[in-house]
Design goal:
The chain is built from seven helices and nine strands, in the order ααββββαββαβββααα. By secondary structure, it is an alpha+beta fold. Strands 1, 2, 3, 4, 5, 6, 7, 8 and 9 form a nine-stranded mixed β-sheet that branches. A hairpin with a 7-residue loop joins strand 1 and strand 2. Helix 1 packs across helix 5 and helix 1 packs parallel to helix 7. The chain is globular, with a radius of gyration of 18 Å.
């Protein structure tokens, strides 16, 4: 009996962390697929908008709660340009969580993909270290869509975070005001196999690039290799 219990305990000790790691790896892979599919459509995120972003958050398949005031909970991936001022190529991802608020889903309970662009160093720094309320701690707006849209519009210039949604093939800017973003430290531990802070992942090269992030990082480096907001 004791031997059986020991064996089951050993199986759980080995199997649970491996399952949790695979789950987060799948989330990172899904984020890469979402980003590539969105950037491949004709009227996607305008080039001069993404070129001014310091970080990108991708939240695949977020579901609206079926009760209450329409709250939401989603997990995804955040990747930032490397360097203290976010000037370099896109770097190792950190896991992120979206919580709370009514995010105004136009399509009922349909799973929705979200992409958020962090347009200022302040918003990126804050999200890497704490919970940030969109529209409160950081100004947020629905992002412009289409090749002819510009990052120089008044709403885009004012917003620290621009947000987009995709559901049932419809891609559009959407307001996420009232929701919060925070580092998902538990997911980072599952993915990288050790406790590691989000800021250490981004700034201090605390972990290597996971193979699951290849599509996401390659897609962003191809689409936007340089941060044009740092020019001049």
């Amino acid at each position: 009996m004791k031997k059986t219990i020991f064996i089951w305990g050993l199986v759980l000790a080995i199997g649970v962390p491996a399952f949790a790691q695979r789950k987060e790896q799948k989330r990172v892979e899904d984020a890469g697929n979402v980003m590539k599919e969105i950037l491949d459509i004709p009227d996607d995120i305008p080039q001069d908008v993404i070129d001014k972003a310091d970080c990108v958050v991708v939240l695949p398949s977020v579901l609206k709660f079926a009760f209450g005031v329409g709250g939401s909970y989603g997990r995804g991936v955040m990747t930032c340009r490397s360097g203290a001022n976010y000037e370099g190529s896109w770097g190792v991802p950190t896991m992120i969580a979206l919580e709370g608020g009514s995010v105004g889903f136009q399509l009922g309970g349909q799973a929705t993909d979200f992409v958020l662009l962090l347009m200022t160093k302040r918003s990126a720094d804050n999200i890497l270290t704490s919970k940030v309320k969109l529209g409160g701690d950081a100004s947020a707006a629905a992002g412009p869509v289409g090749r002819n849209a510009s990052a120089e519009t008044d709403i885009t210039l004012r917003a620290e975070i621009l947000s987009y949604s995709r559901a049932r093939g419809l891609f559009a800017g959407i307001s996420l005001a009232g929701s919060t973003l925070r580092p998902d430290n538990g997911a980072n531990e599952n993915l990288y196999g050790k406790k590691v802070a989000a800021k250490d992942i981004v700034f201090n090269h605390a972990v290597p690039m996971p193979p699951s992030a290849k599509l996401l990082i390659d897609t962003l480096n191809k689409k936007s290799p340089k941060n044009t907001s740092k020019n001049g």
